[in-house]
Design brief:
By secondary structure, this protein is mainly α. It has helices at residues 19-26, 31-44, 46-56, 62-77, 92-107, 111-131, 138-153, 159-172, 180-191.
């Protein structure tokens, strides 16, 4: 016959903050060991990599920055299709990385590449908003796009290229409201410019 379980409530042990003992233990390691472990953790976990890049404001080579931005867009906009029409969780930190990376691309003079990545973000992000119950991630997507829109307002790209990009962004927006007024205003600005 199975033993009866006690109905007495078991209190879990109190957790202590790990900083004191962890700091002491890590201080005994060499700088090389710590770097190796951080690199290993970053290789195995994209969230750790994003945190390290953001915290230390690390400069990535262009190709790595492009790949990291594509991956951050994929991570930010990912959701389980079984959760459609619910308030599902999503990766806020990945959206922060997208915004930061698009700004870095603009600062590096890579506006066209930021524009191309924004098209991907609009495509995947608007689908995520459409699939969710309340579209809470709208507040994370729009700041990413606004950085690119701001740069385009002052750019010297051909008007036809900017107009075409705005049109495609509006077409890819499944919700029909993500930065729609800003996109229409930007398109109008370039449509009214005198030809060069």
């Amino acid at each position: 016959m199975p033993k009866r379980r006690s109905k007495q409530k078991i209190n879990p042990p109190k957790r202590t903050h790990p900083a004191p003992w962890l700091r002491k233990a890590l201080a005994q390691r060499t700088k090389g060991e710590l770097i190796d472990v951080l690199v290993e953790f970053a290789r195995d976990d994209r969230a750790v990599l994003r945190q390290l890049v953001a915290h230390f404001e690390l400069q990535m080579p262009l190709e790595e920055l492009l790949a990291a931005t594509r991956q951050a867009i994929a991570d930010a906009t990912a959701f389980d299709e079984r959760d459609i029409n619910r308030n599902f969780s999503y990766d806020y930190e990945a959206y922060s990385a997208v915004q930061r990376n698009l700004q870095l691309l603009i600062e590096m003079g890579q506006l066209r590449r930021a524009m191309a990545l924004s098209l991907d973000l609009m495509d995947q992000g608007s689908y995520q908003v459409e699939a969710s119950d309340e579209g809470l991630m709208t507040e994370d997507i729009e700041p990413c796009l606004r950085g690119v829109l701001k740069a385009l307002r002052k750019c010297d790209l051909p008007a036809a290229e900017v107009i075409a990009w705005c049109t495609e962004m509006l077409e890819r927006d499944r919700t029909e409201f993500l930065c729609d007024q800003e996109l229409r205003s930007l398109r109008e600005q370039f449509e009214t410019q005198p030809p060069a």
